[in-house]
Amino acid sequence: MELSSEDALRLNVLLTHELQAVRINENSLTLFALTGRGEARIALHPTGRKEQYLRLVREMLSGHALGSPGGYPLFIQRWTRMGQNSGDNIDKLLLLGEEEAVVSVAYSPKLTDELARRAWWCVQSGDNARRMLERAAVSQGEMGPVLAEYLVEHLPFETSPHVVIDTVRIVLQPGLLSSEALLRLWKRAKGDNTYYVGFLETVPDALPGQDEDAQVTALPGAMPLEPLAAAGNPYARQLARVLSPSGKRFLVACEDVLRRPADQDVARALFRAIGAYFGVSRQDPAQEHQLKAALTVAEQRLADPDADLAALLAIVPQYRAALYALLVLAEVGEFSVAPILVRTTAIGSLMRRKLEPVSDPLLEQLAVLRATV
User: Fold this and answer.
1) Minimal CA–CA distance to 154: which of 173, 172, 167?
2) Please, what's the b/e burial string for 280-303 (b: 16 or more CB within 10 A of its CB; e: otherwise)?
3) Is residue 88 scored above 90 in pLDDT?
4) What pLDDT score does 75 carry?
């Protein structure tokens, strides 16, 4: 089989121009090319089976771009999806009309904002957008807000909690979304609390919301903590952080997800967020505990406080229960639920029942902090 004379002529003319990217619509049999002057298109006229004809077209494109008609080697697909394509000529991969070659560019550590623009013109997909936004050159460039807007718009259609958390985490990078868009994204969590987890992991101290909400009203009781916190007392700082309006929002969101995590990915991510947020007060920063040990450590630390903790207790003894809750939460993290989750594939209500020996006591400690005034 050969290219039709009309297609061969038009393709040869097209290849004399400086192309930026090429894509092929296999349904309409149309080739699109992005150039410095805009977009060009060629309607293809197969002389035989469509699949074979498109292979001939791609061989011609590959021969021009790479000097070989072999096209993009699909057998290295997994390699490129691991971000290992660090070649100096990744821009040439956008001239092959191969979607997997575009994915390779999106995953490349050498991706630039301009290459992201071209790759996005070739193929628009949530996975490509997420991977491209992981590159600072893109997230801080002109394409950053474009990709973030696409992800937020399509997020309601994502069915995997893991993908939802990953997407929220990525679009929360500074400068990608307006404050209004962030608030709208936050409010979606009322219908799907998986959204909260991305916020809790990424911006725990800058959660959107209105400070005048009844649940997160600023507490005058935190005022006695300010002198010690300003002097560098770590416990006073952490307690003041938790009692702040943003801290109260963190507690409310934690409670919501802890009561109803959708699956194991959500549960693990939530406990990572809890460990990161409260872990600044952990006795051994490198060691998380299972619940029973966490309770014991908290009791021991409160019974035999170090100098900073003793100083705080002397000034605000009424916060003893809150400090105990703080110390318990400081000792937990993903390790606290890992032994339960590795022994089951359960999700939903069954998984939640299995987590109750850990989640219920932690909910009690969160409630103590929320009630502290």
Assistant:
1) 167
2) ebbeeeeebbbbeebbebbeebbe
3) no
4) 42
Distance CA 152, CA 174 (A): 15
Q: Is 112 helix (H, G, I), strand (E, B) or coil?
A: coil
β 38-43/30-35 pair status: antiparallel
Look at residue 175 in the predicted model and tell me its pLDDT.
Answer: 94
pLDDT at 80 over 90: no
Q: Which two tokens stand for residue 49?
A: 């089976």
Residues recorded for the chain: 373
Distinct helix (H) and strand (E) counts, the chain = 20, 3
- Enter the tokens of residue 10: 């038009």
Reply yes or no on whether the pLDDT at 291 is more than 50: yes
* Separation of CA 302 from chain center: 37
Please report, as a single letter, which amino acid is at residue 305. Answer: P
Spatial neighbors of 120 by CB under 8 A, at least 6 apart, are 128, 129, 132, 143, 146, 147
3-state SS of 163-202 is HHHHHHHHHCCCCCCCHHHHHHHHHHHHCCCHHHHHHHHH
pLDDT given at position 73: 60
Q: Are 239 and 259 in contact (CB under 8 A)?
A: no
Q: How far apart are CA 362 and CA 373, in angstroms?
A: 19
User: So what's the pLDDT on residue 72?
Assistant: 58
Nearest to 250 by CA among 291, 310, 189, 304: 189
Please state whether the predicted TM-score (pTM) of the whole model is above 0.85: yes
Contact 267, 355 (CB under 8 A): yes
- Tell me how far apart the alpha carbons of residues 55 and 61 are, in angstroms, rounded to a whole number: 10
CA distances from 50 to 1, 3, 23, 46, 99 (A): 11, 11, 16, 6, 17
What angle do the packed helices 234-243 and 320-330 form, to 10 degrees? 100
pLDDT in tens, 319-367: 999 999 999 999 999 999 999 999 999 999 999 999 999 999 999 999 9
Q: How is residue 268 written in tokens?
A: 């693990």
Whole-angstrom Cα distance, residue 69 to residue 65?
Answer: 9
Look up residue 34 and give its DSSP letter: E
The half-sphere exposure of 285 on its side-chain side, counting CA atoms within 13 A, is 3
